[in-house]
Description:
The complex is a heterodimer. By secondary structure, chain A is an alpha/beta fold. Helices cover 34% and strands 20% of the residues of chain A. In chain A, strands 6-7-8-3-9-10-13-12 form an 8-stranded mixed beta sheet, with helices on both faces. Chain B is of the alpha/beta class. Helices cover 32% and strands 20% of the residues of chain B. In chain B, the strands form 2 sheets. In chain B, strands 6-7-8-3-9-10-12-11 form an 8-stranded mixed beta sheet, sandwiched between helices. In chain B, strands 2-1-4-5 form a 4-stranded antiparallel beta sheet, with helices on one face. The longest helix of chain B is centred in the middle third of the chain and has 18 residues, at 187-204. At the A-B interface, helix 7, helix 8, helix 9, helix 10 and helix 11 of A face helix 8, helix 9, helix 10 and helix 11 of B.
Amino acid sequence: MSGSMAQPPAPSGVAAAAGAAGGASPLLQLADLQMYFPITSGVLVSRHVGDVRAVDGVSLTIEKGETVGLVGESGCGKSTVGRTILRLYRPTGGHIVFEGQEITTAEGSTLRGVRRRMQMIFQDPYASLNPRMTAAGIVSEPLEIHGVGTGRERRQRVRELLATVGLDPDYGDRYPHEFSGGQRQRIGVARALALHPDLIVADEPISALDVSIQAQIINLLERLQGEFGLTYLFIAHDLSVVRHISDRIAVMYLGRLVETATSRELYERPLHPYSVALLSAVPIPDPAIESRRRRIILIGDVPSPSNPPPGCHFHTRCWLRARLGNPERCVEEQPALREMASGHAVACHFAEEVEGSPEQVLQISGDSPGASVTAAAITPTTATTATTPPAPTPGALPAGPSTPQQPVPRRRERS
Amino acid sequence: MHLLSVNNLLVRFRTHDESVFAVNGVSLDLDEGETLGLVGESGCGKSVTNLAVMQLLPKPAGKIEGGEVVFQGRDLLSLDESEMRELRGKEIAMIFQDPMTSLNPVLTIEEQMVETIRAHRRVSKPEARARTLELLHTVGIPQPEARLRNFPHQFSGGMRQRVMIAMALALEPKLLIADEPTTALDVTIQAQVLDLLQRLTTERGTAVILITHDLGVVAGMTKRVNVMYAGFVVEAASTADLFARPRHPYTVGLLHSMPRLDAQPGEPLIPIEGVPPDLRRAPVGCPFAPRCAWRVEACWTAMPPLDPIEATQVIVTTGPNATHRIACWNPVTPEEAIAARPLRAGFEPAAPPTEAVS
């Protein structure tokens, strides 16, 4: 829960720092991690014509025993980060350091040794369990692969594991299709626990489940963390779920981290325009709150990661940039993650402008009807000139003729 | 007269050796311009109810076995296929969760939209094309002229859903049924699409039935809600009333099992234990009883009727003053709704009757 996530350490410094720190070293450090997937063309001779930059320079530190939430929209690269940590891919660049051990290019037995200590829970409990294996077989497979115990010991351990995740140990003989979605996800959790891992990467573990079952799995994961001292990287698109389970949250957009903060900070004081928009877009199950909330409606879709916009990746959809008169800096210069407060880092040139803006505050508590605030304070300054012309002469518009075309974020206002 | 009245609808799916009891007596009314949310988990019958209204149940397995569906005074269940076809799209339109499977992949957007319009309106092709352009513009498709000749796969998920909305509203239907319209979309795109949907239907006075599992979406988008479980409506109220004073144990359970963005940090989730019932068994008693902490003996044997929570002479089924009704023998008290558990001293959930176990 420290602020160390904020500073992307220089690649050379990582190993040294990790080696020197000894017992206090974080469980996992990512430094400028890159994972590009090549795009090739041609039938006989395949030419490399470009890259999908799924992960484009991610630096993140995960301390032992904490839960870090990685949140973002589909295609932002959050799952690729998780898979790259487990070395299911070979990273294009950057470093992965697990307990002081550089595993970026580890192979063979070294890699196997590390993988024992990192496990994954997948999104789709229907696709991630082999339909031709029994539940006991699935949970026991990691034990067999790593040669843990005798057959009898393994069978005993499988029964324990099934009981731990809330399944009847006698169900071990059943096949995945005989279980419900929630029960299958429990099997997936039992499999992840089999080797006593330190780190569990949970990739959207509840998105495929029914609402009433989701809470069961969340509570199970929380209980197991307490019992076994697990560290989680919890990857999800649902900000309310991530906020509930995480100590710290990293927000990702098009392959890069745009903001990292404690859950509480991110929620109370988001500083990146994207985080603000993401928070405002999450519906809250309370009509009274919904009716007074202002929603920042981002314009357009997420651009393609094979051809991301230059500079700040978010500038094409940014509501703040429009208000500031579309500064060129957003297009020209990639913003680095900079620490704005202890443990709170933001990759935005103009994060200071977000601070204190009416958008930053989620209209959730307080009994003042949001409408009054909305009308007066919220209207962007540039838009004011464009929409309510105090001076009807077009030449008087300060920002020139392009002003009316500026993408001004639309807000949903309900009464 | 209501725009739509569904009375005691029964839908079953029959295969050679078993039946699925999908909808077990659903009644609901809807007025012109109203927005109604149907909330529940997968398999609760919310989609099947609406497919039955549209008479789009998969054949031959899906069958309406009882009840009536009255739309603008006409009994839809007595109409033949050609009359229904005349009505679909023109009077009642539908948007589905996955816009990729509901658009024809081998036709351009222009072809399918012009075809839709010309199937119901006597207009020339150029007129239909002009209308298509106008609609695409309304739903916010950039450069609509260029996009007309595109195929569905050339659109992103959010854009496809916009095209679906444009098609659904092309004939200015009285009722729009939106079945999980944003479930497949990212949250920022969901915000765009919901905003659009709300703006257009409000402008046109289109009545909306919004089917969703997301209570947050319902809270922002609808004025009235029916909560469904295992083919029954278990709670019906105005949206404000339902969220402020939930009375059915299932509704209370749902509200407590979702992490909320505005929850206090560290607030635990209270899951609903167990799993939804197997719909292949004929319902006996309240289907929620096995998972319910409030159950009493009657719950195991008799399904409670959907009755007002307070004794009243007149039951209002539509509008902002709709009567708050629940189907429950042992309603949750307001204090219990906050605590999410029964607070009565010595209360124990009733054990299942021994003779009923087969």
